[in-house]
Amino acid sequence: xxxxxxxxxxxxxxxxxxxxxxGSMSQREAAQKMGRSDRWVRTxxxxxxxxxxxxxxxxxxxxxxxxxxxxxxQKQVLAILREPDWHDFGPTFAAQQLAKRHQIQVGKETLRGxxxxxxxxxxxxxxxxxxxxxxxxxxxxxxxxxxDTSDHDWLEGRGPVRYLVRMIDDATSWSWGRFVASDATPxxxxxxxxxxxxxxxxxxxxxxxxxxxxVPLRKGESHEQQRAADRLTQLGRALRELGIxxxxxxxxxxxxxxxxxxxxxxxRLVKQLRxxxxxxxxxxxxxxxxxxxxxxxxxxxxxxxxxxxxxxxxAESQDLAAILCHAEDRVIANDYTFSFAGQRYxxxxxxxxxxxxxxxxxxxxxxxxxxxxxxxxxxxxxAREASPxxxxxxxxxxxxxxxxxxxxxxGFFDRPIPPLWSLLCDGT
Length: 428
Fold this sequence. Notes:
This protein has helices at about 10-20, 25-35, 40-50, 70-80, 90-100, 110-115, 185-200, 225-230, 235-240, 255-275, 280-300, 320-325, 420-425; strands at about 145-150, 165-170, 175-180, 205, 245-250, 325-330, 335-340, 345, 360-365, 370-375, 380. The protein has about 425 residues and is of the alpha+beta class. A hairpin with a 2-residue loop joins strand 7 (about 335-340) and strand 8.
């Protein structure tokens, strides 16, 4: 006698059909129990006379699927996955890259079974980590952008590429970033510059409390005192001048979207750079621009067109080169010079005016290495020559105002001096 494997549902259906067959249950009652029509129950009763109990078992059970991949395809796929460049690929990412690079279409679960059978994949139970409160996404594109840097050996020793600066929109997960030589202020400014040129000014940025973004508290200083002192880093000053708000996170979990995206990149991006044979910083950034960011934004980001765009264009008075720079204040000397980084610079003669002396001047070291002064043209001075000592000291001049009787100079240096910009405007 043939043995037929059945599920509990199939055994129940067979029981109701047999009751309808021997008359202990009507066909309508059997149809209601089975969730089928009366006509279908009559059809099954007719088939029972020929097929017997197997009438409740699907006819395709035990047959090979017409969509099953051939053994040759399975052998080819496993041979590719055994190559050194594919040694750490998981089933999901491997299935995507096989379709992209070798035009082999195989489902991730099918590939998972093949890899487990070949001993190339061992499933791990997912561990539950610490639970953190969920924060809803923002509702508009450009309303909040998370900004962070990942230090990782992205080229696996093939080249000096360690730092990936990334910006990811909180509402859509749209991403942009660059590989940079160092996680320093100028390189982060350059990435911000490119983002603004692509999209415009975001409303707020969400960063960690790195020294690039915030000034640490002084000894015995409170947050209120620091806020009152209004001390800013160069990036903080630039964000204020651009009209971009800065939100500082107290933990990595607070900006979890960008942190989790780095975990994905450290798995997928490293493997893609390996398959593409990228060995230089220029090649890595070109790969980001042409392949990785378009693929990421297509697969993992929400469509930007479905969200309102809160990015703002630059105002006419906002010059990115003058804002995204290293800016310091210097005092103009009596000879209309100032010092910066151990070198002295001269204000051009046609712009020099007497009230400028002892005034504060903003000096900007641009990202391209050029030094500029706000409102003025400057040139580098030569090295100062040391004046030789006189052969004979002159006699001291007699002080005719000895005794402090003269008062005509009192209060002269306390007179208010107009600001530098107004003097330049008057001169023109």
